Prior knowledge:
By secondary structure, this protein is mainly beta. The chain has one domain (20-220). It is built from two helices and 18 strands. The strands form two sheets. Strands 1, 3, 5, 6, 10, 11, 12, 15 and 16 form a nine-stranded mixed beta sheet that branches. Strands 2, 4, 7, 8, 9, 13, 14, 17 and 18 form a nine-stranded mixed beta sheet that branches. It is elongated, with a radius of gyration of 17 Å. It starts with a strand and ends with a strand. 34% of the residues are buried.
Amino acid sequence: MATFTANIKMESNTFDTLKKGGFKLFGFKAIQVSVQGGVPLVWFATDNYLANTQVTWQESYQAYISVQDIPAQGTVIDASATENIDLSQTMNVTKNGVTSVLATGKAGAISVVSDLGHQWTTGINQIVNNVAQPLCAVPLYGGNLDTFTPIEKVLFMFATEPYTTGTVIVQAFSQGILVDLTGVQSRDLTYDLNNGWGPTNQVWAKLVPVTSDLTPLLIQF
C-alpha cells in the first residue's frame, strides 16, 4: 500500500497569524469518474497544523451511498452505508440500500453498481492522516454502474470558513495550490499569508485563484 506525503512549510509570523486568526487547512483530492453531475467534497479540514506540517494519505479506500440528492455548495453529504473496498472491486447496492463488495471489477478502479428501482448518491472515501474521508459525490442511477479511478492530485488552501469534511465545495473560497504527485510519493510546499502558495515555478504545482471553479480540477472524466 503506497503512502503519499505533502510537506507544507511556513515562516513563524505566517503560522502565528493563521493560528490567531482561526484559519484551518483544507484539503481536496482529485478523482476520475465515469458519470457527469458529480461534485468535490472537503476531504479534510483541520486546525491541527504546525509551521512544518506533513499531510499523509494512503491507497486505502471505502465506497459509500447516500439518500441525499447532489446538494449545493456548503451542504454536508451523509453516508447511509459504507464498505471497505480495494481497487478492481465492486460495491453492489440493492434497491433497498443493502450493500456488499464483490471481488471483481474494472481493473485499477472502484466500481459501484445499483439494482433497478432507486437512485442514490455515491462516492469514495480515502485514508488521510489515518482517517477515511470522502472525496466526491456523484449520482448513481438505478441499474447503472459508476467507476472511480484515483488520481494523485491534491488541492490545499487555508481559510476561516466553517466547512467540515464531506461538505460540497464547487468554488474556491481562498487561494489554493493543486499538487500533482503522479509518479512520486512526496512534494514540498510553502505558504506565506500575503504571498500565497509555492513553489510557483514547477509544472506539478498549479496555483488556484480564489472563486475558481473546482469541479473541473477535481472531478475528471
